[in-house]
């Protein structure tokens, strides 16, 4: 059976649950069902189709609609039963281990090969299949594989709902024989451990023992958000040569004269808008990789695999979507695309931030958004770092741009468990890969895909470290006070830099600048850097001596202060900041400087 919901096709099987169909009472949402006779993965015969709306399904008796199927000649070809069910949001999991004893033998020469089929029984006594175990060959005392299933999937989080277990004898031709069945509920299974199987004549057909039954209560994503967890977006963009140079019309980074977005701009806008909804302060660090950055304030003549797009390693933030798009477009003029494509240096720097946040017990969770054309040349190192990051507050969302082979990106996604070259398996899933071209014309589908795994990843991280959502602290409006904390902010920014964050980049850029640019500034350069001294911090000392000492001090002090303020907004050092003596009330720090205008003769 094939479901067509407006635009996107989804392949389904008989009695398969169709999820995430949003019912809006004020909107008529058409839906089409097509039924096929399956022959092979590439060949199926059309049986018939029917049209309806979600509203008609929901509005029918017991939310169940029976429709006629029509073939290509508009003749009757069968019926289809469609049932709508409200999904109860629940993160609880059920772990179950079942052993069979004295299972009825259905064969003459050999023994039965039993397997179990789980179906939940709906309000109108309709069985909905939710799980099937692997069969145990020629075994009348089978110990079935461990079962781990979401409570929402098993019983729609209704712990009194009857669950039907059918024990079947496996046949390779697909015509399995019924052995017997029994029923249980989640609440019942927490007490009762033994269930008798009954065949079609209600005779004994064996016994199922629940050797282990656990109902694991798991909080939901929203519980952590309400408890104070702050989500922080970090963006990284691929500027390797495989994307094509921006001046080429077929480049993924080509800037169109008519104002149309290129592939990266489209992805930044559509995906960024989705994730920015969850970033409270809208201050977004932006990094590039795979290019030689030659910005006026950040010059390096070797390929860098993690560099700040605004040229300031101490404060790589831009503000909001406009800041992201402007920064991206402006920086293209100052990049020499190169290679190879390395993810690990980028992940390592983000790992430092997440580790620092965790050590300080901050309620921060980082979302690293990587936009890439799919090529990667440090797969082993990248997988190792991702495995290492399982116990850090971070998720990685990779957006595949263009039409390259994304096989390696699917490997990194690794929903079944990422394993590094040393054989270590990631303790949780923290990577989601989305191929942009597949969803760029369907924003709702793109939104669902981008956020498909993030809530569970956040919940699983806090479960892994044994932390429950914090209780919501309600305050009376009159008790809320604005505290002045600039000194603590400044100190925090300096402490993080001293702790080693981005030190390798800072040092290498300083050394490169001294080696390659140790010559006097011309008159235009002097005017530019005198007007915007914050952009002169990485030029060699010989050039800096051309300025007044008080301006030279601003070069280093101001970025540290601004960086501290931005980090504080993300939730850092709040426990310390709250204890700052209010005698610092009069202390003020200058606001961040405006973005610099282009240097004379350059459009930046």
UniProtKB/TrEMBL annotation:
One of its GO terms (cellular component) is plasma membrane. Residues 232-450 form the VWFA domain. GO terms for biological process: cellular response to calcium ion. Keywords: Repeat. One of its GO terms (molecular function) is calcium-dependent phospholipid binding. SUPFAM superfamilies: C2 domain (Calcium/lipid-binding domain, CaLB), vWA-like. CDD domains: C2B_Copine. Gene3D superfamilies: C2 domain. Belongs to the copine family. This is Uncharacterized protein.
């Amino acid at each position: 059976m094939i479901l067509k919901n407006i635009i996107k096709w989804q392949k389904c099987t008989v009695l398969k649950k169709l999820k995430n169909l949003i019912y809006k009472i004020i909107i008529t949402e058409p839906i089409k069902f097509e039924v096929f006779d399956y022959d092979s993965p590439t060949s199926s015969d059309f049986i018939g189709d029917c049209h309806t709306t979600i509203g008609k399904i929901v509005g029918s008796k017991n939310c169940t609609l029976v429709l006629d199927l029509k073939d290509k000649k508009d003749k009757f070809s069968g019926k289809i039963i469609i049932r709508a069910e409200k999904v109860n949001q629940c993160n609880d999991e059920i772990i179950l281990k079942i052993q069979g004893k004295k299972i009825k033998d259905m064969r003459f020469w050999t023994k039965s090969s039993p397997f179990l089929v789980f179906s939940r029984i709906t309000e109108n006594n309709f069985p909905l299949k939710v799980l099937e175990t692997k069969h145990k060959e020629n075994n009348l005392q089978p110990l079935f594989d461990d079962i781990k299933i979401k409570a929402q999937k098993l019983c729609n989080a209704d712990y009194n709902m009857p669950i039907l277990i059918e024990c079947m004898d496996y046949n390779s031709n697909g015509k399995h024989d019924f052995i017997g069945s029994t029923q249980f509920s989640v609440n019942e299974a927490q007490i009762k451990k033994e269930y008798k199987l009954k065949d079609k004549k209600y005779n004994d057909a064996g016994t199922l023992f629940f050797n282990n039954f656990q109902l694991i209560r798991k909080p939901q994503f929203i519980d952590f958000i309400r408890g104070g967890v702050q989500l922080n977006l970090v963006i990284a963009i691929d500027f390797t040569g495989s994307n094509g140079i921006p001046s080429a019309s077929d480049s993924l980074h080509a800037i169109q004269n008519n104002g149309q977005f290129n592939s990266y701009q489209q992805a930044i806008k559509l995906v960024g808008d989705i994730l920015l909804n969850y970033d409270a302060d809208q201050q977004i660090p932006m990094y590039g990789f795979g290019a030689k950055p030659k910005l006026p304030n950040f010059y390096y003549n070797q390929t860098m695999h993690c560099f700040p797009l605004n040229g300031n390693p101490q404060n790589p933030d831009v503000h909001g979507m406009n800041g992201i798009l402007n920064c991206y477009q402006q920086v293209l003029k100052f990049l020499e695309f190169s290679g190879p494509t390395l993810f690990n240096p980028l992940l390592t720097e983000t790992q430092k931030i997440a580790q620092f946040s965790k050590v300080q017990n901050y309620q921060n969770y980082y979302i690293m958004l990587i936009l890439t054309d799919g090529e990667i040349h440090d797969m082993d190192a990248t997988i190792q770092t991702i495995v290492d990051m399982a116990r850090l507050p971070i998720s990685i969302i990779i957006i595949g741009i263009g039409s390259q082979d994304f096989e390696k990106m699917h490997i990194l996604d690794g929903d079944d468990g990422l394993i590094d070259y040393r054989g270590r398996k990631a303790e949780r899933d923290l990577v989601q890969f989305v191929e942009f071209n597949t969803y760029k014309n369907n924003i709702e589908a793109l939104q669902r895909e981008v956020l498909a795994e993030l809530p569970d990843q956040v919940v699983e991280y806090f479960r892994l470290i044994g932390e429950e959502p914090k209780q919501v602290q309600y305050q009376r409006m009159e008790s809320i006070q604005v505290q002045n904390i600039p000194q603590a902010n400044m100190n925090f920014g300096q402490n993080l830099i001293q702790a080693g964050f981005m030190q390798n980049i800072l040092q290498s850029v300083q050394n490169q600048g001294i080696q390659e640019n140790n010559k006097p500034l011309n008159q235009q350069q002097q005017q530019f850097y005198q007007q915007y001294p914050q952009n002169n911090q990485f030029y060699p000392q010989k050039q800096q001596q051309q300025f007044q000492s008080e301006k030279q001090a601003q070069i280093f002090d101001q970025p540290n202060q601004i960086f501290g303020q931005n980090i504080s907004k993300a939730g850092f050092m709040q426990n310390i900041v709250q204890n700052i003596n209010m005698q610092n009330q009069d202390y003020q720090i200058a606001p961040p400087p405006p973005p610099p205008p282009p240097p004379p003769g350059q459009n930046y």
